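New here. Invent one.

***
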Amino acid sequence: MPQLDVASYAPQLVWLAISFVILYLLMARVALPRIAGVLEERSKRREDNLARAEEHERDAAATAQAYEAALAEARSRAQAELGKAQETAKARADAELARVDATLQSRVREAEDAIAQARTAALADAAGIAAEIARLAAHKLAGLSIDEAAARSAADAATRARA
């Protein structure tokens, strides 16, 4: 084996040093700058992605705030519309209640007038009936014959005395 021959150590060491220097220069001049460029590009791309992610996060936060503001505004508008609708419904109900109340009041007045007329008619008839009963009672009990006008005037006088 030539590698183990002691006489060939010096040329092998020289070629080892030459190979090492050539590989070192190739690595230092060609491979390492490319690797450094790739690493730098990766780092730059990662920082750009982080910056865009932060920007998107800020945009999302702004959108969420705008959404919340729009939602709050919609809720307040809905509350206002609901209040208006309630007021309108209450006003309509009050107007309908007033109309029904007025109708009922007029019917009550008409009924009271009808009752008063019926009472007056009943009292007028009662005086006539009382006069007729008095005339018949006088005829049956006392055998007296009283004319209708006298019996009516006596019943009217008795009714006025009571009132």
